[in-house]
UniProtKB/TrEMBL annotation:
GO CC annotations, alphabetized: cytosol
Any one Pfam family match given in the protein's UniProt record, by short name: Cytidylate_kin
Catalytic activities: dCMP + ATP = dCDP + ADP; CMP + ATP = CDP + ADP
GO molecular function list: ATP binding; CMP kinase activity; dCMP kinase activity
InterPro entries: Cytidylate_kin, Cytidylate_kinase_dom, P-loop_NTPase
Species per Swiss-Prot/TrEMBL record: Embleya scabrispora
Protein name, UniProt field: Cytidylate kinase
Length: 228
């Protein structure tokens, strides 16, 4: 029988595109299991926000690379209230703006940015006991994770979910949201370093017809099969 990893040291890697439900599901799974939680996408958004705030040309990879070691990004890991600060400043709100959303793929494609943030992510993961969500967790950040899940959903479902999250000045049509998701998918899956996608050995979970609780229950069952 294959030895199973203790829950206290396990890493649950959850990858998937925007709108697949990975953020809400990952937080819920972590809370139910009493584990820590890390949103790696927020770290890329934090880096992007810092670049924009400090006047770095995000379309100049050399400029982004040169500045990538400057911001001090700290991620809290409480699933019921994850935090993220940049240079000591609360960035949870600023990193969710439309400006950051449109710029994050360009910044994330710069190899030096990925190297810096993967190092930070691995430092947070440490000895485990954590649910980590992103787009390259199972393939790059934590390839030895005992539980690897790839969440997906139809384009229509993803666009509807993402659109429901947008409020105020970010509000737009479902069609525009769908086009933006397709643009980000193409950029993230086509980048030269750590392209987004399903890792070898990951379990595919299609959430199109499932509500959040159904997905959470399914993932908890998967975790129970692989950890003790």
């Amino acid at each position: 029988m294959e030895a199973r990893t203790p829950l206290a040291t396990a890493v649950v890697a959850i990858d998937g595109p925007s709108g697949s439900g990975k953020s809400s599901v990952s937080r819920a799974v972590a809370a139910r299991l009493g584990l820590r939680y890390l949103d790696t996408g927020a770290m890329y958004r934090a880096m992007t926000w810092w670049m924009l705030t400090n006047g770095v040309d995000i379309h100049d990879p050399a400029a982004v690379a040169a500045a990538s070691d400057k911001p001090q990004i700290v991620s809290g890991t409480a699933p019921d209230g994850p935090t993220i600060t940049v240079d000591g400043r609360d960035a949870a709100g600023p990193i969710r703006t439309d400006e950051v959303t449109k710029a994050v793929s360009a910044v994330s494609a710069v190899p030096e940015v990925r190297t810096r943030l993967v190092d930070l992510q691995r430092a947070v993961i440490g000895a485990g006991g954590i649910v980590v969500e992103g787009r390259d967790i199972a393939s790059v950040v934590a390839p030895d994770a005992p539980v690897k899940v790839y969440l997906t959903a139809s384009e229509a479902a993803r666009a509807a979910r993402r659109n429901a999250e947008l409020t105020g000045t970010q509000a737009t049509s479902v069609e525009d949201t769908r086009a933006d998701l397709a643009r980000r998918d193409a950029l993230d899956s086509g980048r030269a370093v750590a392209p987004a996608g399903m890792a070898e050995g990951a379990i595919l979970v299609d959430t199109t017809e499932l509500n959040r609780e159904q997905v959470v229950d399914h993932l908890l069952a998967l975790v129970a099969e692989h950890v003790r």
